[in-house]
Fold this protein.
Amino acid sequence: MQVAIEQGGGLAGTVPTTYGYTFLIVNTGAKSCEVHGYPYEVIFSKENGEAAEVSILHRRTVLYAQPKIQRVVLRPGGLASFGISYTYGIAPTDGEPPACLAPLVDVRLPALSSHLFSYEFPVRLDACEAGGKVEVTPVEGRAAPRA
């Protein structure tokens, strides 16, 4: 399997402002495989490599719905997705303290043996401004999480 990330943007001009990322999963193998539930692991990292203090929540946001957990069978070339979002009370500034910035996220998929592989992506999360909370959706058998 391969994973790609797409910045979901946010609802600009609103306070609080919600931002998100859509993760696309594709089965690049020759056999069907399945994913089920939430990503096995979601870790935001600071520039020094330490994990940022972030609580992962499973709840609906203004960007993504929180659908029922289902088993998703991916045939070769099949697509699935999940979303990660967070909310800032005010628009972030360029002067965030370095201790709050998390420029990387590592995810592990909820699939047999797939949890052994981590996928790392660049992001821009101010964990302090987000109140230390990030929402994650379960994997869905569609190219984008439900809004």
